[in-house]
């Protein structure tokens, strides 16, 4: 990548003031600080400016100026990423491009079941707008009140609805993108079939802004369910959870929209730091599954189907106990338990986080074998294992032993624990990054676990689209 001088950066910043308005070019430390540290506070960078364009044309103007002055750009949405993908490096040579002002919902087509939104629209606003039109936008994750559609697309976010609806990639039909040369590609086509060449859309989804800047998207909508049934089921092991998942698929088919696995320790941790959230069962159980059915017919039909499924599960011994939400408030309380696990972890102290995925059939074996390896390497380490069992994605996190200083624990064991987990994932045919992206956190792991052929193809695409290397350098493929 071409190095830029301080004079060139100053000229770039001045030109950006003319292009998008001085009020939207932030350079003072107290103004730029919120944009320079990632959500986990793992990375803090520096920037020559934080730029806040308000239109796609202004984004294009910024990119054209970046080409002229050779200034690298770091696109940023809600800054809720977990891999440092939207944080600049420490050189001060890069500029952050915040897409927060691109926050308009451009269109909603109920017959085509699509919504066209700009990159800075917050996920919950998309959900709400769809609901007002009698439609469902099914992407749902803990940060939905602050993450943006552009960031969701940039990382190909997953969330709790992947089992039924797929990742963000599966929910997107078309994109508008500013290329690394500052051109605007208008691919906002709400088509479910379009075989007219290479699938450019999928190149940009999951690329974390390294190939261009997503400015708008056409997203799929679904019919709003007539009823939802939510329950917590207690099980003896991850193997039992897998058998229960198979039973749920047989009984509920496409009505099964959520199947989340949580270890006993996860919920104990939530109860420790959020006492108002009580443990849902009278007796402890090794594993708890949060499952949800969404029915387009009726509440009665959904509950009848659910009761039939649970009767089989309890009679066969797969499920040890279960509690069913009787109303919307109880359903929300069940999901709150799941969503407070990361918050409880943060309260407990620093920990080693992993966002991994293995084939669903290998989840239980992965947990058993990797738990044993970690226990042997770090006696007393506490496993916070939870995630989307229905699609094989686990947040497989390691908390320091009780009473051990968390910072010292990380300094001593993080590299070793990462290697244990990633080698186990590799043996099971899995991936070290399921839904959080690569960012800067996992660039070295990408180089370690991707084949040389894959890496060459990725780098060839990057070089072809971004020959100057100005789009989010140092992220994803490095």
TrEMBL record:
- PROSITE patterns per the record? FAD_PCMH
SUPFAM superfamilies reported in the protein's UniProt record: FAD-binding/transporter-associated domain-like, FAD-linked oxidases, C-terminal domain
The record's listing under Gene3D superfamilies reads: 3.30.465.10, 3.30.70.2190, 3.30.70.2740, Uridine Diphospho-n-acetylenolpyruvylglucosamine Reductase, domain 2, Vanillyl-alcohol Oxidase, Chain A, domain 4
Per the database record, which ranges form the FAD-binding PCMH-type domain?
43-224
Keywords of the record, alphabetical order, are:
FAD, Flavoprotein
User: What are this entry's molecular-function GO terms?
Assistant: catalytic activity; FAD binding
Q: Does the keyword Flavoprotein apply?
A: yes
A biological process (GO) annotation for this entry?
A: respiratory electron transport chain
The cofactors it requires, by name, are: FAD
Query: What InterPro entries does its record include?
Result: FAD-bd_oxidored_4_C, FAD-bd_PCMH, FAD-bd_PCMH-like_sf, FAD-bd_PCMH_sub1, FAD-bd_PCMH_sub2, FAD-linked_Oxase-like_C, FAD-oxidored/transferase_4, Oxid_FAD_bind_N
Is-annotated flag, keyword Amino-acid biosynthesis?
no
Family assignment? Belongs to the FAD-binding oxidoreductase/transferase type 4 family.
Protein name in UniProt:
Hydroxyacid dehydrogenase
Native source organism of the sequence: Trinickia soli
